Amino acid sequence: MANLLSVPVQKTIFMRAIARILIAVALLFAGLGLVGIFALMPAYLTLQTRQAAIAYELTALNGSQAAQQQDDRDAIITANRQLAVAGGMAAPGHDPARAIRTVIESRPAGMTLARLDYAAGKAGSSTEATLSISGITAHAADQTAYLSALRAIPGFASVEIPISALAHADTNAVTYEVRGTF
């Protein structure tokens, strides 16, 4: 079969066919791109929602930590004021404020002190003073860590957990008794 069209007309028809094929391929890739974007949109929105939720939780957590730190500061200030008033009642050479400050500073981060009771020894004698510490811990490991930290402090003759405190082993409440000449 012979082609009756001239060569320039054949080239024009060929170029138009190539242009149509290129346009079809370009439209196909554009369509596939749009499908891909729409397919990834739910995943993107899910990630953005989770990031916003995590940011909100971090903000709330930082706020609660700041409140806890403020409560701890207030407790330390109150204890220091009470010790300043009671400082004259202690035996000469003894510093209960230092002992209480050491007890407060050596507690683990997961522990909240609820109560500190100080019972001074007899003035002028070698009777040991007693410091009772009550608090709440987040984990049992914090109780053990605090007990070890208290036992490592020089000047504390003995650090014990009273038997009555062990009766409530199912809770996170903990009580320690520290004896020493402080």
Describe it.
The chain has 182 residues and is an alpha+beta fold. Helices cover 58% and strands 17% of the residues. It has 4 helices and 4 strands. The protein has helices at 7-86, 96-105, 140-151, 163-166; strands at 111-119, 129-137, 156-160, 173-180. It has a 4-stranded antiparallel beta sheet, with helices on one face. α1 runs antiparallel to α2. The radius of gyration is 38 Å and the shape is rod-shaped.
List segments where confidence is low: pLDDT < 50 over at least 5 consecutive residues.
none
Question: Which percent range fits the helix content?
Answer: 55-70%
How many beta-strand segments?
4
H/E series, N to C?
HHEEHEHE
Q: What sort of overall outline do the alpha carbons produce when their principal axes are compared?
A: rod-shaped
N- and C-termini, Cα separation: 117 Å
How many distinct helices?
Answer: 4
Secondary structural class: alpha+beta
The whole-number mean of residue pLDDT values reads 84
The main sheet comes to: 4 strands, antiparallel
Into which percentage range does the β-strand content fall? 15-25%
Radius of gyration: 38 Å
Task: Summarize the model shown.
The chain is α+β, with helices and mostly antiparallel strands. 58% of the residues lie in helices and 17% in strands.
